[in-house]
Write a structure and sequence with these properties.
about 160 residues; mainly alpha
């Protein structure tokens, strides 16, 4: 999560949670109305309220006018639920696709930074792609300077061998 004033940031976990929440809501509708057949079937057919339409008789609701109003409501909301479910599935798909794009961009940026670090601090005998799959702790270990006394003695010996004296 980005800090205020630190620029733009995207919380990939929040995108995943939002997608999961929308898909869970669609699944809940699926369970409530016994649609079965998965999300696509539900959205395509707009089923689920038929049982209300069938039970909207004057005997079950107590009045002819109420029966007609309930039947009209169910007929219209069959389409409303259909579009609601379709929009929910589309929204979840869009959240998944957005998260995927950001993950790919993060991976590409990390690879670019790793390659720059390899050029400036890595083993010149190693392939340029060698660091692509290394984690940051490995890279830090390979690029961190060794300030130990042993390293200083070794460097001094190499200087004397190279330049004499």
């Amino acid at each position: 999560m980005a800090q205020p004033g630190a620029g733009f940031g995207v919380d990939l976990n929040a995108l995943a949670e939002a997608e999961r929440g929308v898909r869970d809501a669609v699944a809940e509708l699926n369970e409530m109305y016994g649609w079965g057949g998965g999300e696509a079937n539900v959205g395509a057919e707009g089923r689920g309220l038929e049982h209300l339409h069938e039970s909207a008789t004057p005997d079950t609701v107590g009045h002819d006018g109420l029966s007609g109003a309930l039947a009209l409501f169910v007929e219209k909301w069959t389409w409303g639920v259909k579009f609601l479910v379709e929009d929910g599935v589309d929204c979840a798909d869009a959240l998944r696709d957005t998260r995927s794009v950001y993950e790919k961009a993060d991976d590409a940026a990390a690879t670019a930074v790793k390659r720059v670090l390899h050029v400036f601090g890595g083993n010149p005998m190693e392939d340029a792609d060698a660091w692509d799959n290394k984690d940051w702790s490995q890279i830090r270990g390979e690029t961190a300077p060794d300030w130990s006394a042993e390293s200083a003695r070794h460097a001094e010996q190499q200087i004397h061998q190279t330049f004499g004296g």
